[in-house]
Amino acid sequence: MYVAAKGGEKAIRNAHALLAKRRRGNENLPSIGLDQIAAQLTLAVDRVMAEGSLYDIELASLAVKQARGDLIEAIFLIRAFRTTLPRFGNAQPLDTSRMLVRRRVSATFKDLPGGQLLGPTFDYTHRLLDTALGGGENGDISGDSPVASGGDIGDIPAAPVAMPRVTDLLGQEGLIEASPADDGAEPFDITRAPVAYPVDRATRLQTLARGDEGYLLALGYSTQRGYARSHPFVGEIRFGDVEVIFEVPELGFEVSLGTVQVTECQMVNQFKGSAEVPPQFTRGYGLVFGQCERKAMSMALVERALRWKELGEEQSAPAQDEEFVLSHCDNVQATGFVEHLKLPHYVDFQAELDLVRRMRAEHEAEMKEAAE
Question: Three-state SS for 56?
Answer without folding.
Answer: coil
